[in-house]
Amino acid sequence: MPDLDALILPALYVLTAVLVVAVVVTQAGAFPYYVRTYWVATIVVFGIPVVAYAIGSYQLMVLLHVIGALFFVGAHSASVYVAFALPGETDAKKAEALLLLSAGALDWLHASLAFLLATGVAAAFAGGWWGEPWLWLSLDLLLAITAYMYRASAPAYTPARHALLDEGGPGWDDATRNLVDRGRAVRLMVTGSAALVAITALMIVKPG
Question: Would you state the torsion angle of the CA atoms of residues 91, 93, 98, 103, taken in this order, to the nearest 10 degrees?
Fold first, then answer.
């Protein structure tokens, strides 16, 4: 009979690979776009963790990881506000302004997510954590919730932006308003918050 403990890490490796593919599929073209459009910011986002790792300060890498998490949560605040404000909005101009706010926050969200991942990887190498299941599980939770968020939000907010912002779009009609229902906003907020709490708990407790 196989040792179940010995199977945990290989299973998590496979799960991580699957989730990486899921994130790549849901965000096809995003990374090349940011590298081309914001190449200086891309260098900064990935260069800072590399420099911190070269310095060899584990505490600095953990601090940067926490800062990345704070920016990640902060970048979500605009999207959460928009998700709950849109369903009750009847004025097309105000709805357009809200969607522009949400679209602008996406750049910060993607940058903070990349920084969060990069600093986390650097800290994991510096701390020698890659052999610990809790690390892989926390990474898998982050990848899973990222793929879910994009998969659950894109069918609503992307068409709504096109409807309002594209020339000749249908505008803020009943069909567009029905796309951004409050139930979707609740589901996204609850699942995202639960995942972040679980990841934080894993990082603090570090179960063996």
Answer: 140
Domain residues for 150?
21-205
Please report the DSSP string for 15-39 in residue order.
HHHHHHHHHHHHTTTHHHHHHHHSH
Q: How many domains does the chain divide into?
A: 1
Which tokens hold the place of 27? 């965000």
Alpha-carbon distance of 144 to 136, in angstroms, equals 12
Please check whether residue 16 lies inside any domain of the structure.
no
pLDDT in tens, 22-77: 888 887 777 788 888 888 989 999 999 999 999 988 999 999 999 999 999 998 89
Question: Is the separation of the CB atoms in 28 and 79 below 8 Å?
Answer: no
Cα(42)–Cα(64) distance, integer angstroms: 16
Tell if the pTM clears 0.70, that is, is over it: yes
